[in-house]
Design brief:
39% of the residues lie in helices and 13% in strands.
Length: 365
């Protein structure tokens, strides 16, 4: 870690955050750790955001005011690519940090340079700064979670969702150079996608202290709050993430993370592990059957390989006829064109193979 450049680059994307952005910036200024730069991408705000940002006289604050509205993910990537720190911290323009948040994360990375990302526990707070409890919203349980091994995180992300708080995150520039920036195509779950890509190569850690205050508006104004458009978009994004969930994942880590879910328990055969990856994509997860699109695509690819066709037929009792039956049913979109990946997809009846139907139902429903 160099002593010349700012060690921590704080990245924020803001759009019309005039009500709370002042508190956010003040929480950064109040950090006990002071070797940072703060890159603020203002996404063509139409409120008083620009005036508030420019009211802070600190050369470490480096704002950019966009002339066009680009969405927050563009702002995240802009901040990272225009930063100079060896560590990158994320914060949103309505959240705040406790004063020792950065220091404790920097200390963690000094002691654990092999980790890919470090998070903190969070307090959910409303628009007035009041701490929310489980009685107010069950969402306070989202990120009240203990640490896991790298394999356990991957399995958790697969079956249960994100599990870590975006505005609490800090990660190394070297990690981003390896796994890539945020996916510009994802609006709802861009952080979830990034944590999965990091967890394939690095362990993750959560500091077991509530050092981040996550704003949850009782009016439902959060960008991540449920809406018809947001749910449809999230379903699509989830389906795309699952299509590549097992890409670039070593066999060893795959076995450690998902071995308990295998059809052929204990297998280490590379070809069978390929089939096991496909079969996992037909299991129900926290967002329903979104992975099934990836499973169908993988099934289709494996059918083109003579060796894999034989393995699926002889060891798993699966043939192209099963694929035809599967794709005759809705996989991602129903007949009305509305996304249904959050709802169970009925596994097709295969009359000629009752044992296969029973097995599918037992495994996937």
């Amino acid at each position: 870690m160099s002593n010349n450049a700012p060690l921590v680059s704080i990245v924020m994307s803001n759009y019309n955050g005039e009500l709370l952005i002042k508190l956010t910036i003040e929480s950064v200024l109040a950090q006990t750790y002071q070797n940072w730069e703060f890159i603020i991408f203002d996404d063509c705000s139409t409120d008083r955001s620009r005036e508030i940002i420019l009211s802070f006289n600190d050369t470490r604050i480096k704002p950019f005011f966009s002339d066009t509205h680009e969405q927050m993910v563009y702002g995240f990537n802009y901040g990272i690519t225009h930063s100079s720190g060896e560590l990158i911290a994320r914060i949103d323009s309505d959240d705040t940090w406790e004063p020792d948040k950065l220091q404790k994360q920097v200390d963690f990375f000094r002691d654990h340079p092999d980790y890919g990302a470090c998070f903190t526990l969070v307090d959910f707070i409303d628009e007035h700064g009041n701490i929310l409890t489980e009685k107010d919203t069950e969402r306070v349980l989202w990120w009240d979670i203990r640490n896991k091994t790298q394999a356990e995180w991957l399995r958790y992300f697969y079956f249960y969702g994100c599990g870590v708080s975006h505005p609490s995150a800090m990660f190394s520039r070297n990690v981003i150079e390896k796994v890539g920036l945020y996916n510009l195509g994802y609006v709802q779950v861009q952080d979830y996608d990034l944590w999965i890509r990091i967890a394939k190569h690095y362990p993750l850690h959560i500091i077991q202290e509530k050092l981040t205050n996550y704003r949850w508006f009782t009016t439902g104004a959060n960008a991540s709050a449920p809406s018809e458009k947001g749910i449809r978009r999230a379903n699509f994004e989830f389906s795309q993430i699952y299509c590549g969930f097992f890409d670039d994942l070593s066999d060893e880590l795959f076995i450690e993370a998902f071995g308990a879910d295998f059809t052929h328990q204990g297998t280490t055969d590379p070809d069978e592990l390929t089939v096991e990856r496909m079969l996992l994509l037909f299991k129900k997860v926290f967002c329903g059957y979104a992975p099934q699109l990836g499973g169908a695509q993988m099934f289709l690819r494996l059918l083109q390989d003579e060796k894999m066709r034989g393995i699926m037929r002889d060891r798993y009792n699966l043939t192209q006829l099963d694929f035809y039956e599967l794709t005759a049913k809705p996989i991602l979109f129903d007949e009305t064109g509305l996304s249904t990946s959050s709802q169970p997809v009925i596994i097709p009846t295969v009359k000629r193979k009752p044992q296969f139907l029973s097995w599918l139902r037992r495994r996937f429903i």
